[in-house]
Amino acid sequence: MFPQRLKSLRKGKGITQQTMAEFLGLTRQGYAKYENNQSEPDNETLQKLADFFDVTVDYLLGRTNDPSPPKVEVDGIRYKDREQMLLTQKERQVLEEMRKYPIFFNDLASDPSKIKKVIKMWEFIKEDLENDNDEEPED
User: Fold this and answer.
1) Residue 72 parent element (H or E)
2) Which residue range(s) make up the domain with 88?
3) Could you tell me which residue, 50 or 94, shows the higher pLDDT?
4) SS3 of residue 77 by DSSP
5) Is residue 56 domain-shared with residue 80, that is, in the same domain?
6) Max CA separation in the chain (angstroms)
7) What is the per-residue pLDDT across 55-101, written as a single tens digit (0 to 9) for each?
């Protein structure tokens, strides 16, 4: 079941075996062995694949036919996992604002620690801008 699901997910995204191999740090032949049922990935690689395709490991392994990872909802906001739930209200607001810009959101949503970094960078920039405004212009 795993080889068929892996191949189907990859083809569904229009991704080559070479691209997947590079993502996983493998040779193309090494990755192809997964799809040809000649090798099985370790647990870390399985999780990486599940995260990449936004499915559960159970789905990849054929234990369930529901590919969707469970979502958690807090304050009307759906989170991919428990780690995202641990965001502060301010961080959740930033996340919601970022949803308006998919190119940024998809990257940030994959790693909530990035949201914290974005907020710190923005606070630094704001402070720097405020300090620039406080300085008197030179003649």
Assistant:
1) strand 72-74
2) 72-134
3) 50
4) strand
5) no
6) 74
7) 888 889 988 887 776 555 555 555 555 555 566 677 767 767 776 76
Q: What is the DSSP string of 88-100?
A: -HHHHHHHHHHTT
Residues 47 and 53: beta-carbon distance below 8 Å: no
80 in a domain, yes or no? Answer: yes
Task: Report the predicted TM-score, pTM, of the whole model to 2 decimal places.
Answer: 0.52
Whether residue 128 sits in one domain with residue 93: yes
Q: Which helix (H) or strand (E) holds 6?
A: helix 2-12
Which residues in the chain belong to E strands, given as ranges?
Answer: 72-74, 77-79
Domain assignment present for 66: no
Surface-to-core class of residue 128, CB atoms within 10 Å of its CB (0-12 exposed, 13-18 middle, 19+ buried): exposed
Number of H helices, E strands in the chain: 9, 2
Q: Is the pLDDT of residue 137 over 90?
A: no
